[in-house]
């Protein structure tokens, strides 16, 4: 199955990309560690949310595909999604 990434997910990742560039700029400017760490924390939180969004959207697409194929037992897909989320932490 080919996965279609949503525009909202791509937008979220572009925003994260901008945040990372901002962190690098702070470092180049010699800003205090506290400022850099605060921005890195924001990057981490944003990437966690993007990851969760990606897994949720993928799970939804996989479940729909399985149901269209006549398979009503989607427990395995849900377990795989949970494992992905746990693995990422």
Automatic annotation (TrEMBL):
Single GO molecular function: DNA binding
Query: Which InterPro entries is this protein grouped with?
Result: Metal_Tscrpt_repr (IPR003735), Metal_Tscrpt_repr_sf (IPR038390)
- The domain of life for this entry's organism is Bacteria
GO biological process per UniProt: negative regulation of DNA-templated transcription
Which Pfam family, an example, fits this chain?
Trns_repr_metal
User: What name does UniProt use for this protein?
Assistant: Metal-sensitive transcriptional regulator
């Amino acid at each position: 199955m080919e996965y279609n990434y949503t525009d909202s997910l791509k937008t979220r990742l572009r925003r994260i990309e901008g945040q990372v560039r901002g962190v690098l700029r702070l470092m180049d400017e010699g800003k205090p560690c506290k400022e850099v760490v605060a921005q890195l924390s924001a990057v981490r939180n944003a990437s966690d949310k993007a990851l969760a969004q990606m897994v949720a959207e993928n799970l939804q697409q996989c479940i729909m595909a399985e149901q269209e194929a006549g398979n009503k037992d989607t427990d395995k897909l849900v377990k795989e999604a949970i494992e992905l989320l746990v693995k990422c932490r």
